Amino acid sequence: MSDIITVIAPVNIAVIKYWGKRDEDLILPLNDSVSATLDTSIMCAKTSVCARADFKENAIWLNGKKESFDSPRLQNCLREIKLRAAAEKSVSEDFLQRKVHVCSENNFPTAAGLASSAAGYACLVTALAKLYKVKSDVSSIARLGSGSACRSVYGGFVRWHAGINPNGTDSVATQIVDSTHWPEMHALILVVGDTKKKTSSTVGMRIATQTSELLKHRVKYCVPERTEAIIQAIKQKDFPKFAEITMKDSNQFHAVALDSYPPCVYMTDVSHFIVDLIHKYNTASGSVKVAYTFDAGPNACLYLLNDEVPKVISLIKHVFPSSKPESFITGLNSEEEVLSPALMSICEPQVQDLIKYVIHTKVGEGPTEITDGSHLLNEAGLPKTE
Ligand SMILES: Nc1ncnc2c1ncn2[C@@H]1O[C@H](COP(=O)(O)OP(=O)(O)OP(=O)(O)O)[C@@H](O)[C@H]1O
Ligand SMILES: C[C@@](O)(CCOP(=O)(O)OP(=O)(O)O)CC(=O)O
Hints:
The chain has helices at residues 72-88, 93-97, 116-131, 139-142, 201-211, 213-236, 239-259, 269-285, 309-319, 341-344, and strands at 5-9, 12-16, 21-23, 28-29, 33-37, 45-52, 59-62, 65-67, 99-106, 157-160, 173-177, 185-191, 290-294, 300-305, 329-331, 357-362, 368-369. 34% of the residues lie in helices and 21% in strands. By secondary structure, it is α+β, with helices and mostly antiparallel strands. The chain is built from ten helices and 17 strands. The longest helix has 24 residues, at 213-236. The two termini are 23 Å apart. The chain has two domains: 5-182, Ribosomal Protein S5, domain 2; 185-362, GHMP kinase, C-terminal domain (Alpha-Beta Plaits, 2-Layer Sandwich), CATH 3.30.70. A six-stranded mixed sheet has the order 8-7-9-6-1-17. A five-stranded mixed sheet has the order 13-14-12-16-15. A four-stranded antiparallel sheet has the order 2-5-10-11. It binds adenosine-5'-triphosphate and the ligand C[C@@](O)(CCOP(=O)(O)OP(=O)(O)O)CC(=O)O. It is an enzyme of class 4 (lyase).
């Protein structure tokens, strides 16, 4: 039997955003956040890990390239998993002393605002937990890699509790409902740009924490109320309520980014155009059918129910013509529906390629171990691609 462990882990897109830390080293947030975990069959990180007595050093390969293992976030995750394993006495002292090799790949662009760090660290920490046979919840360890990663440790809809303990022991993720609760919930990710962003989330939220008055108001008054309300909406499958809170929270997060000094601008003209289009679509539909949300970048994530997907895909194709129509919609198969004249008239077609491509996905499960032997490390514990 192989001693290599391989795990795939999902991305998650928040509907109540995490933005601002109360402790930068422990990655403790100022507020609770809520997200949906997205299907690993469409977007995922895949990570293989292995610990052997003859490895000379800890090593990590990310997307085919050897990277430094010195990153404090990586070191913190490995250290905490080993401490947990030692406390649980799950492996021998000798095993804990061994060096590890890690090889990871994302099947979508890295560091492009598509939550690669969330999937990446959830995957790494889950794989290490299996390697060291850790049984307890590891969301607080994934949090040390990237805050939002703690939510990718679970499937379905997930809440990250900010917690109040200075040492962060209560800053953990819990599942609100699993992925079978609201299977009709789909997501369309409209990729406006997939290059590295100008201001990282870490830096952007540091500036906001130091300078934004609006962030203080958001943390104290808006997020607590919205968190409770959206959890109710999720439990009751109340889409219009869910969508309204999602859109308001995205708008407020970007208002906080603009209220920072110097301001952080993540949305582009195309992003704002999408916001306007969704509001027009909802008005023309007579009720709220689609929600948008934007992370620290220009890409839109639209949440909508399955029934609505054919119409919305037709609308996107009509408004955003592509020079590569055959590869414009990726992910889950989606039918198209002829748009009614009323919906056709809400927006004229724009110039070609404002949106690069669209990923159609849905709410899915948390990290899973891959047992078919398709490891990223070979028998020598080195990347198969080397
Ligand atoms: N599969 C992975 N395994 C380990 N680390 C990863 C993996 N994927 C990404 N990362 C880490 O996350 C970093 C990218 O995080 P960053 O926050 O810049 O981008 P993002 O996650 O795509 O965007 P955002 O967090 O705003 O959605 C990478 O440079 C790398 O350090
Ligand atoms: C806008 C967000 O996507 C911010 C994500 O920030 P990160 O989790 O990437 O930040 P660090 O904890 O500094 O690594 C909102 C969210 O996912 O809740």
